[in-house]
Design brief:
Layout (H helix, E strand, L loop, with lengths): L1 H5 L5 H23 L4 H6 L2 H19 L11 H28 L8 H31 L7 E6 L3 H12 L5 E8 L8 E2 L2 E5 L4 H8 L3 E4 L6 H13 L3 E4 L17 E2 L16 H7 L3 E5 L4 H11 L5 E6 L2 H14 L5 E5 L5 H11 L3 E4 L6 H6 L1 H21 L4 E7 L8 H23 L6 E7 L1 E3 L5 H10 L4 E3 L5 E2 L1 E3 H14 L5 E4 L5 E2 H11 L10 E3 L18 E4 L5 E5 L5 H14 L5 H11 L11 H6 L1
Parallel strand pairs: 1-2, 1-5, 2-4, 5-6, 8-9, 8-11, 9-10, 11-12, 12-13, 13-18, 14-17, 15-20
Antiparallel strand pairs: 3-4, 6-7, 16-19, 18-22, 21-22
Helix pairs in contact: 2-4, 2-6, 4-5, 5-6, 11-18, 13-15, 15-16, 15-20, 16-20, 16-21, 20-21
Length: 636
């Protein structure tokens, strides 16, 4: 039987020959049935000649419908439709020939009408049946002879996606998923069957299926499933020690067809405690099309995604500016392979380098700037506050000032929720930068009313999967066998995905009229301990037995919880219910400009304490936490 397992695709002539034989024998069978198996009557009516004629007619029709070209083991609706067309056209053809012979030639029919009807119906059945039989045989030969440790599983979703998932699993010879049943929330489907597998309602019977059949796997195959329901399904699976996978959206299927390999494990990103925020503003395309756009920090997780999204809006030129050589090269290669339609210019440089920044603006004349370059690692910036001040504050001031001189249309500054009531140097440096660009915008509005650069700020929470975020850290710790380190049992954070964060940046860029601070409504904050436990369970490990969770204590400058607004800020609604504008009174430009200028004289000369003390004078709500700089608060 090994040669059958190696057999790939049957040649077309074999399929055409098999179809012809079926047409011949179905016609012969029709004669037998019509004349009650009386051989004398069958011979008298030239059954062999009539059957041969029926076969020839079918062959001629097949040349037009090409019903023999389908790959038999992948027979589907389209193949069945072609066979139906072949049989119907052949039937109509013989009806016409019979009519012509009987009425114009006064000759007998090629085939008696009753024989023609029986032959057509039986051939339609047999042509489809043998294809489905061969299809199942191929699946059996491919999978049945292999010794595999199958895992019993269920598919949640008895709709189109669930059926396609089941078919993809059956076609894949490497799959070890054995479908036991379907689950679906629709009560009308309860008790029915798909491919011989019973449909159960909701999650109510999952526990009994686990105990009765040893179910260890579940595939979620429902389009547009709410995050809340997805979390309920996953929580129940984790309680029953059932592994969870998910069918990706249709637009992620390769060539429009789902493969078993595309069914992926559930990611922690799938478990945001809110619905994903989707923005689709046609004005983004209008505002960015045909323009020269500069993105700083373009090699980072946020900056690179901003660049990817901008590439879809047909810019005249996209300038990718970053100091990280290797990461910038990687982004360059990605754009060559996946976004070659978008003209780009790679610039290796530092936003703190005045000469370099001036050269970029002079050479390429950007019209829109997205400023994502920054130091953002909280404990690292507590140890090196001079770097935070130099990059996050002075780098932003330098870029903003040159943008004004270059008459840039819009300058979008990427900030963070850590700038709200900051407890660390990083957050305070971003708040000071916010204050500067907002004050600069207000100054320009008052003194240059006809035309000036519009400065807009975006502020968002922790980004899932970004460089330095907790998710990649937890994944690495799980891969290494643990333990997972959580700083405090009560620590919480707001989370958003990288695409969400970048959508906010682009949306703010086109919505902003200058001076606004845009924030996302990110739902409820997520408890980091719960996140860690869920990631352990999703990896198939047991908490404390295989992977332990240990508490390391708050890091320098770290908060227990983040905020999107401080006590003095209010929000203003926008056209989108999930986007708000933080209404923050701007600082005096001359005051903040003088305070920031003072940092230039302090860099390389003053101590860390002196730098941080001056930063606290600029951002009075900056109160250090778990940091060596707490002493400065007690001195004030």
């Amino acid at each position: 039987m090994n040669f059958l397992t190696r057999l790939k695709i049957l040649p077309r002539w074999i399929i055409a020959s098999l179809d012809s034989l079926i047409l011949f024998y179905c016609a012969l069978f029709a004669y037998l049935v019509r004349f009650n198996f009386e051989l004398a009557l069958i011979e008298q009516n030239d059954a062999l000649a009539g059957s041969f004629t029926f076969m020839i007619g079918g062959l001629l029709v097949m040349q037009n419908t090409r019903s023999y070209e389908g790959i038999v083991r992948h027979t589907g609706f389209r193949d069945g439709s072609n066979i139906f067309k072949t049989v119907v056209i052949n039937f109509v053809l013989f009806l016409f020939l019979n009519f012509f012979r009987g009425n114009f030639l006064n000759d007998r029919f090629l085939l008696p009408t009753s024989v023609l009807i029986i032959a057509s119906l039986s051939s339609l059945f047999m042509l489809i049946f043998y294809r489905l039989l061969v299809k199942e045989l191929f699946v059996y030969l491919k999978n049945g002879f292999l010794v595999k440790n199958l895992k019993n599983g269920v598919i949640f979703g008895a709709g189109e996606a669930g059926i396609i998932a089941q078919e993809a699993i059956k076609r894949d010879g490497q799959s070890i998923f054995n479908t036991i049943a379907f689950l679906d929330d629709d009560p009308k489907k309860e008790g029915k069957n798909i491919a011989g597998k019973r449909i159960y309602k909701g999650l109510g019977d999952l526990e009994s299926l686990v105990s009765e059949f040893g179910v260890t796997e579940l595939i979620i195959a429902v389009r547009d499933l709410s995050v809340q329901r997805k979390n309920e399904i996953i929580d129940e699976c984790l309680r029953l020690n059932v592994s969870v996978c998910i069918v990706p959206p249709v637009d992620q299927w390769i060539n429009g067809g789902l493969t078993a390999g595309a069914i992926r494990e559930v990611k922690i990103e799938d478990l945001l405690s809110r619905e994903p925020i989707l923005l689709d503003n046609p004005r983004i395309h209008q505002d960015l099309q045909g323009k020269v756009i500069l993105v700083t920090g373009a090699a980072g997780s946020i900056g690179s995604e901003i660049c990817r999204q901008i590439s879809h809006y047909e810019p005249k030129l996209l300038i990718l500016f970053d100091i990280a050589e290797s990461a910038l090269y990687d982004v360059q290669q990605e754009f060559k392979e996946n976004h070659s339609h978008c003209p780009i210019k790679i610039v290796l440089g530092d936003v703190r380098n005045k000469k370099k920044v001036k050269e970029v603006f002079k050479s390429y004349k950007p019209q829109v700037v997205f400023h994502a370059a920054a130091y953002k690692h909280v404990p690292m910036m507590e140890n090196y506050p001079e770097e935070a001040v130099h990059s996050n504050i002075l780098g932003t001031k330098l870029l903003a000032d040159i943008a004004v001189l270059a008459q840039v249309e819009k300058f979008v500054f990427v900030s963070t929720d850590k700038a709200v009531n900051p407890t660390n140097v990083m957050g305070a440096s971003k708040r000071a930068a916010e204050m500067y660009v907002q004050a600069l915008n207000e100054y320009l509005e008052r003194n240059h009313k006809k035309y000036h650069t519009k400065f807009i700020t975006t502020r968002f929470g922790n980004v899932l999967g970004s460089n330095g975020s907790v998710i990649p850290l937890f994944k690495k710790q799980i891969m290494n066998g643990g333990p997972i380190t959580v700083t405090h049992p009560d620590i919480t954070r707001y989370f958003m995905t990288i695409p969400e964060a970048c959508q906010l940046v682009l949306e703010a860029g086109i919505m902003g009229e200058g001076g606004e601070i845009y924030i996302f409504d990110m739902g409820e904050p997520v408890k980091i301990l719960d996140l860690a436990k869920k990631m352990i369970k999703l990896s198939g490990k047991k908490i404390d037995e295989e992977i332990k969770v240990v508490f390391s204590g708050l890091r320098e400058g770290e908060k227990l919880f983040e905020e999107l607004l401080n006590d003095f800020e209010t929000v203003k609604i926008t056209h989108h219910p999930k986007i708000k504008i933080a209404q923050v009174p701007p600082s005096s430009y001359h005051k903040i400009d003088g305070q920031v200028e003072l940092f230039m004289d302090m860099i390389g000369k003053n101590s860390d304490d002196q730098l941080v003390s001056h930063l606290k004078s600029i951002v009075p709500e900056f109160i250090s936490n778990s940091s060596r700089f707490e002493v400065l608060d007690r001195m004030n």
